[in-house]
Amino acid sequence: MVSIDNGRDESIFLTVNVEEGKVFLEDYAQARKIFTNDEEIALFIQQAQEKFNNELDMGKGTSFIYGWGGCMASLNEYENPNIEYIPIIFPDTEKFRISNYKKKVERSLVEKGAIVIVPQKGTKYLAVIQRKNKKRNLQPFSRYISQNASCK
User: Fold this and answer.
1) pLDDT in tens, 27-70
2) Which residue, of 47, 57, 128, 151, has the fewest CB within 10 Å?
3) 3-state secondary structure of 46
4) Is 141 exposed, middle or buried (0-12, 13-18, 19+ CB in 10 A)?
C-alpha cells in the first residue's frame, strides 16, 4: 500500500500470482490518481516485484492470507511445469481426529502459505505450492509434508 501527502490518502493494492510469483496491478485507474505517468507505475510494479523476489519468502516469517471474507481460497490444480503441488498430510492420531483441532492447524498452515487445491478428479486437499524457479522455505510445513519435498 502506498500513501501520498496531498490532503487525502490514496492506496494501491498489488496482487501476487502465488503460483508464478508475479506481481501485478489490477486497478490502473487508481494508480493514475497517484502516479503522474505509466512509467512511474511500471517502476513501482518493478520495485514491488524485486521486493517480492528478494525479500519475501513465503513460509518464512511472512503471513499470507488467501480468499475474501475469511474464506480459504482454493486454486484449481492444472499442469504447470513451473510449479509443484506438495500435499499436506496430517498424522492419523487422536488429536487430528478432533475436527476443531485439525481446523486450527489448517488455518495456521494457510496463514503460512498453504492453500486448498481442487484437482480435476478427486477431492480437495491442502497443499504448499513450490515454484521450481524460486524455491521457498518449506520448514514451517516440514511436519506435514513428504520428506521427499525439498526443504531449504
Assistant:
1) 888 888 888 899 999 999 999 888 877 776 554 544 454 443 34
2) 47
3) helix
4) buried
> What gap in Å lies between CA 28 and CA 97, rounded to an integer?
47
Q: How far separated are the first and last CA of the chain, in Å rounded?
A: 30
Give 117 or 68, the one with higher predicted confidence.
117
Number of other residues whose CB lies within 10 A of the CB of residue 137: 17
In the structure grid, which three cell numbers stand for residue 99, read together?
475436527
- Compute the distance between CA of residue 143 and CA of residue 28 in angstroms, rounded to an integer: 42
Per-position b or e across 41-52, b if 16+ CB within 10 A of its CB = beebbeebbeeb
Distance CA 13, CA 146 (A): 35
Name the 3-class secondary structure at 39. helix
pTM: 0.61
- Cα 26 from Cα 12, distance rounded (Å): 9
